[in-house]
């Protein structure tokens, strides 16, 4: 049985259906939101409810690639594990050769290159994974990179992948992202974006905050609870105000 | 000057101490160029202290007198002697692989595991492409206490209380045997190193 027959072939109208189907697999994964602040990058992931007998701690969706690079993924966990392993080896190999840390652009390009090569080889299928990588450039500017099953990679100010309604979260981010977000505001924006598709509660999400030159910080449950409670209170108050305003408008109309 | 490195339960601190300079002695070429470098280590009650000379030479010329031969990898100290090509190539390789292990598993290797990994690499290399001419002293502090490993370039490895490499070892082993005792305080251990 020869494995030189490519699984990913062009359709008559120029589509690579295997790649597109892989992207569908990503959409079925749990949500990931990334927000770039002025001096920080926040990655938030949805933690889908685990089975009763399962140990939730062993489900890690945010992984450390290298000293200053963090990755979160949406899609097939098993595929992501393979990709992350390859990336980690590449990072250390780069460090061994160059005695220097690989840039985030280099790592994103490497992961994207790996994903692309699996769309153009015989006997393999594409990775059903999109990933979001957070890190910093040498000039300390925060960076957020995205890769997809086709092997494209690009830098973003904020984005969302996977989850119940990817489009809605992306639109939310487009409406609400502003430049020069402070760390706390970037965290709030990430949580708010996640709340669009995730049931409320710190048990259902995990946040990782990166700052230049510091180890990545995973927010503790208590911290997250406080932020979520605060945001929900804000939403409640906004609702009441809106309701009050329309009621007032109603009475004035009657007079 | 000697570089002193001290591995304790807390982040490593190191102090520069001014002791006698070690002169470069040109020896006859030998397969294992032993001895112009000196390193010593002693194990204390909750720490390991490692000292290594800071000279690197080429034939009769001293190139550097502030060369740091002690590598810090995931909280463990590796003092590597020998030609700097062998020492740095080998240690860089070990360092990156131990870092990769930590990234992969999220756990730090114990001192014993790090030492065993290192000795395996030395032993394998010896039987494949030839030896790395580097003798090592590996020290670290784990949950079950401080550990010091004496390792030579062929990959023999032993957990010890006190160790030394180089010709200097000939003179200092007796000294360490005389003064070392179990569960030493930091000052007592520093004193032994000073004597060495």
Automatic annotation (TrEMBL), chain A:
First-listed, main subcellular location of the protein, grouped into a coarse class: cytoplasm
Cellular localization per UniProt: Cytoplasm; Nucleus
InterPro entries found in the cross-reference section: Ntn_hydrolases_N (IPR029055), Proteasome_alpha (IPR050115), Proteasome_alpha-type (IPR023332), Proteasome_asu_N (IPR000426), Proteasome_sua/b (IPR001353)
Entry-linked SUPFAM superfamilies: N-terminal nucleophile aminohydrolases (Ntn hydrolases)
UniProt-listed Pfam families: Proteasome (PF00227), Proteasome_A_N (PF10584)
GO cellular component: cytoplasm; nucleus; proteasome core complex, alpha-subunit complex
Coiled coil residues, start to end: 221-248
Keyword line: Coiled coil, Cytoplasm, Nucleus, Proteasome
Biological processes, Gene Ontology terms: ubiquitin-dependent protein catabolic process
Residue intervals of the Proteasome alpha-type subunits domain: 3-25
Subunit-level organization: The 26S proteasome consists of a 20S proteasome core and two 19S regulatory subunits.
Family statement: Belongs to the peptidase T1A family.
Protein name: Proteasome subunit alpha type
Biological source species: Spumella elongata
Source organism phylogeny: Eukaryota, Sar, Stramenopiles, Ochrophyta, Chrysophyceae
UniProtKB/TrEMBL annotation, chain B:
Alphabetic keyword roster: Cytoplasm, Proteasome
GO cellular component: a single term: nucleus
Example of a GO biological process term: proteolysis involved in protein catabolic process
InterPro entries: Ntn_hydrolases_N, Proteasome_sua/b, Proteasome_suB-type
Subcellular location: Nucleus
Pfam family, one: Proteasome
PANTHER family from the UniProt entry: METALLOPROTEASE TLDD (PTHR32194), PROTEASOME SUBUNIT BETA TYPE-1 (PTHR32194:SF2)
Protein name: Proteasome subunit beta
